[in-house]
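pasting for ref. prot 1 ->
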Amino acid sequence: MDFPKGQSFFCGFFLAFLLCTNAVQASPNYKDALAKSILYFQGQRSGRTPTSQKFPWRSVSGLGDGSQAHVDLVGGYYDAGDNVKFNFPMAYTTTMLAWSTLENSKPLGPELANARVAIRWATDYLIKCATATPGVLYVGVGDPNVDHKCWERPEDMDTARTVYSVSRDKPGSDVAAETAAALAASSLVFRKVDPVYSRLLLRTAKSVFQFAAQYRGSYSDSLGNAACPFYCSYSGYKDELLWGAAWLLRATKDVKYRNFIDTLGANDAINLFSWDNKLAGARVLLARGSLVANDRSYDTFKQQAQDFMCKILPNSPYSSTQYTKGGLMFILPDNNLQYVAAISNLLTTYAKYMKSAKSTFNCGNILVTHNTLINLARKQVDYILGDNPMRMSYMVGYGTNYPKRIHHRASSLPSKTSHPQSFGCDGGFQPYYYSPNPNPNILTGAIVGGPNNNDFYPDERTDYSHSEPATYINAAIVGPLAFLSGR
């Protein structure tokens, strides 16, 4: 994240073009998009890239990460188009990848193994962050205020790789509870295929969550300008405590996490879901207890999840969600597709739970079935893949018309193979950052921030609020793409 940073052979050419275009948009290749959405994460890797790396223009970076604190913090992901490792959105990214994998293991098909690889690249790093120093949780590497003044490849980084952490004296319940959620959810992904690793993940999750719950405070307050305005915890930490406890409850079935949830009082109504605010996600996850396990004690969460859906559905009398003329949810102007992807994930997941329970609900006089939610999610996904007024896919490398000038350092700068010399902090601005030319490296699968509220996308590298891709957009879209590819 950067701050100031059906073919027709018997019609005229134009009509044929329209028919062909519409046919393509009406039948998106979800499996192709799914594979690319997971492949994208290889382009965000920090650390020593393996021989299986599919993007040859990305290579080794950040091998000294953690050295400032005399610990090994090599690995993990750069969050977006920069060279910083922000653990708060990275942990959320991991949780969403794990949830998507858990709910869609069959429709993922051959991509299941790739999803596990993407998850483990993050969890290996998060385990290091949680266990390197007793009583300390490392929550980021790289000074964002310095990094965001530079335009250089990850392989060339010469900026301070400052290490950030939270502790008893400087708490961070939000980032800690999200880390616990990521580790707990991932433990379920690896439970059958790697039980030893799964137990390590769960053991670490329990410890980190205990720290989050016992020493309460926002990491934004503890880290100051290393967290804000980049990834401020605007919603506070109660939503992460709910989210983390919900995942530990699912992973352990230990009643103490349910008791914790019941005393938390996280009852705020909300119409969004994101790396910052997890309330809606936690409620959908907990509603599974009512719908799938048929446990009536979870009915409150089911009602809260349904209330959320009623705020999202466009024809609901309780809707508080804006839609563009082209049919896209429009939550906030900066990086809007992150919210679209995340909410679409909740729609398909809750639809799955509803179908399992043969359940319906009402928004006023509107009957909502599981297909109601699926149809809305499909419309959002199809819009992202090109069924929109600009006929543009907002996934790089999918289709023929997609963003060519994304706000992403490694993608926009020549690789070390073609330009062995380092750029240095300022070396990439001219002629690359300000260039009107397409990026030399295609970050296949990356989903950008997306169009504005008028369905317009300028495709300008300098317009980071629309042209920057991010891990948490892709992590959220994996679930809906897998779900739709299996139908």
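and prot 2 ->
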Amino acid sequence: MGTVAMLRAAGVGTGDEVVVPAFGNVEVAEAVVTAGAVPVFADIEPSTYCLDPDAVAAVVTPRTAAVVVVHRFGNQADMGLLRGVGQRHGLLVLEQGDLGESHDGQARRRAHAAYLSGRLSGVVTPTGGAGHSFQQYVVRVPGNGRPDRDAFARAVRVKGVDCRVPVKTPVHRMPEFWRDVVLPQTERAADETLALPVDASMSRRDLQRLVSACNALGGLLQPAF
């Protein structure tokens, strides 16, 4: 069942607010609008890129009817804490996987991710426990006031690395959903994150070339934390 259908089935509609992440798919906010409700954006946890339970609780109002939780990049949101917020405030808590993710080759992707995390320098490698499926291998390239992530991406692409910016513009900064709210972790993640290839089809030589290309640019960066 899609998000719109789930919201409508739960009676969510005109006059209701639904808490959603701004980091990621605009389709989630669009689904809320299609159901007749108003999307309200909450900040994310910097380690998982999923909704921060405390941030969700902070934006709940008497009009809030539901929360849509998106599991991002293969990270799992803290559903225990998020359901706890829902129970305290009488909210429906819906889950959605990262749109377009595939479950094929998870073991191989995890092995590739472990290889990269053990060898990459100059970028902040992803954290995640056993539940992280690495649908995308997302690193952080610290900005320090400059667009280092973008410069880094251009440089590694020249070396043949097929990287991409996973979230170019947070949803709350898109014209059709503009909100005068401050979501520091969301905005920082949008500025710093870069998805490096970790496809199951990659060979060890492919991974070695990726590491060499990225580590050669380590001097460009400043520590993130």
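Residues 219-225 have pLDDT under 50 and may be disordered.
Helices lie at 3-9, 26-34, 53-59, 79-89, 106-119, 148-158, 184-192, 204-215.
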